Amino acid sequence: MKSLLKNLGLLLVIIGAVILIICYYGGNVNDNAILATSLILIIVGLISHIVLNKRIAD
Predict the structure, then answer these.
(1) Which are the contacts of 1, defined by CB distance < 8 A and separation ≥ 6?
(2) pLDDT digit of tens for each residue in the chain (58 aa)?
(3) What is the pLDDT of residue 3?
(4) Number of alpha carbons in the 13 Å side-chain half-sphere of residue 5
(5) Cβ–Cβ < 8 Å for 52, 9
(6) Do residues 20 and 45 lie in contact, with contact meaning Cβ atoms separated by under 8 Å?
(7) How far lies 26's CA from each of 15, 16, 23, 45, 56, in Å?
(8) How far apart are CA 6 and CA 45, in angstroms?
(9) Closest by alpha carbon to 47, among 10, 19, 17?
(10) Is-contact 6 49, C-beta < 8 A?
(11) Rounded to whole angstroms, how far apart are CA atoms 17 and 40?
């Protein structure tokens, strides 16, 4: 369970980046809802990665 929590932030960042890549190659770069969703996933992933790894290390 700790390994899943440790990698949760990284997984969210990767999912957000994959959404951006799919939108770019699909030509759907003008849809603000998809772009905002991927941005939120990346930001939440970065914050959760920092917080969870700090708590697991302590």
Answers:
(1) none
(2) 767 778 888 999 999 999 999 999 988 888 899 999 999 999 999 999 999 888 877 6
(3) 73
(4) 9
(5) yes
(6) no
(7) 16, 15, 5, 24, 39
(8) 11
(9) 10
(10) no
(11) 11
